[in-house]
Amino acid sequence: MMKTKIVLTLVWIGFVGYAFFLAPPNQPDTFELIKNLSTGKIEGINPLIVALFNIMGVLPLMYSCLTFLDGRGQKIPAWLFTSASFAVGAFALLPYLIFRNPNPLFQGQKTWFLKILDSRITGVFVAVAAIALLGYGITQGNWSNFVEQWQTSRFINVMSLDFCALILLFPVLLTDDMARRGIKNQKVFWAVAFVPLLGAVTYLALRPPTIEQSHTQTLEPTQVVA
Prior knowledge:
Elements: H1 2-22, H2 30-39, H3 47-70, H4 78-88, H5 90-99, E1 106-107, H6 112-118, H7 120-140, H8 143-152, H9 154-169, H10 171-180, H11 186-194, H12 198-206, E2 212-213
Parallel strand pairs: 1-2
Helix pairs in contact: 1-5, 3-4, 3-7, 3-9, 3-10, 4-5, 7-12, 8-9, 11-12
């Protein structure tokens, strides 16, 4: 566990250092681009950038389905880091992953909010949104234009790396989430870990509900996701 924390800390330091000191410079039209993307004025904007910007709103929701439940047993407020991730992505989530402790049990009862995040309906919504945006970007996007903007725009460059970080870090929370649901089959973990994003959203859509534990109960794991 300590090795994982050290690696995540180094990743976070490297990510912050790159974003502020090594990434391409800001472009004069960055604020206008962000405003247009936020308000849906996407005419003339590369569909790859449109898809990437919007999927960066889906990924924090994907993490929310794990972190809010995981946060029940943590000393640090998961809601704070997760909420901040909707604005700054992995910059906010990495500190949570660094300071959290293993939490394979869910103690007490789920609130209505946690029941929503724990629901397969929410998982299916996240999966459909992520796959639709991914498909739209890949099939409609201008790749040569995207590469050019990635090389010259700090916003596009850092957002792309943020996307990569979020889809690759998901397995850090997966082992405990599986344990809280009684999933013992390690093939599930490796299937999710080796298929970034698609594996994660498929897991959210198929995972069984979190097992609510009292202090006197013992966990009785099951073997499958569905």
